[in-house]
Amino acid sequence: MVSRRDSAVMTVRCLVVAVVLAGCAAGPRESTQLVRPSSSAADVDEPRPGVTDRQGPPPQPVSPCREGMVLVEGEYCTEVRQDCLTWQDPPSSPFARCARFAPSICVGRRVHKRFCIDRDEYVAPGDVLPSSDVSWSDARHACEKDSKRMCFETEWELACEGEAMLPYPTGYDRDARACNIDKEDLVDPSTHRLRDKRLPPSQLKDCVSPFGVVSMTGNMDEWVWRDRSAGEQRSALKGGWWMPGRDRCRPATTAHGEHFRDVQTGFRCCADAR
Length: 274
Hints:
Blueprint: H1 4-26, H2 41-45, E1 69-77, E2 80-81, E3 84-87, E4 98-101, E5 105-106, E6 110-118, H3 136-145, E7 149-150, H4 153-161, E8 187-188, E9 193-194, E10 221-225, E11 235-238, E12 252-253, E13 265-266, E14 269-271
């Protein structure tokens, strides 16, 4: 039997335990989570050593044109009216130069075109100056060998003038400082041949068309596959060379055959956009 004294002791112990348990339940409990020290935004964004981004950089868009070529996409006008406001030469001259044009007017229809064209005139590997003394047949073969093609005349014109149908790639004013045009002393009297006054593309970066194509007037007379101007030949020359001539985007020389060549004849290539 339990004595009254033992029973009283047990009762006191139970009361003490109950009070302790009640205090634990009411008081704060110790958290078992680890608290990280505060850090700045720079610390949070800084990658940890050995940790890489599994997603990687976003994929880059695939260019529709090969390296060294420019995408030309826009509305080409089949027939343009361009009125000269100020002439440098008598307008009756077949090679009369216009110093300033009025804004061009499309009097034909608009045709959408999309293609790639060489940014610069063709320069052979290892050379600095654009290739010269090239025939239409030579230019066609060189383009096809590089898995490109000759530019059609209308493609060349759109790349030169842009959708605004500019008479010059640089605008409505003739600019002999930007493009290699209006040179004098053209013929060497000892050989009776044209003096070679080509310039490298690196010196003609200001002679740029609205699409970013360099030196489309002056420097080299460029072969194209004729598909607009009148003439019996498939061949035509566009842009003019360094002489004081028209040197505009629209005019073409169609009198020369596919095997004609001289120091001023060069080319650039085109390709279908991917």
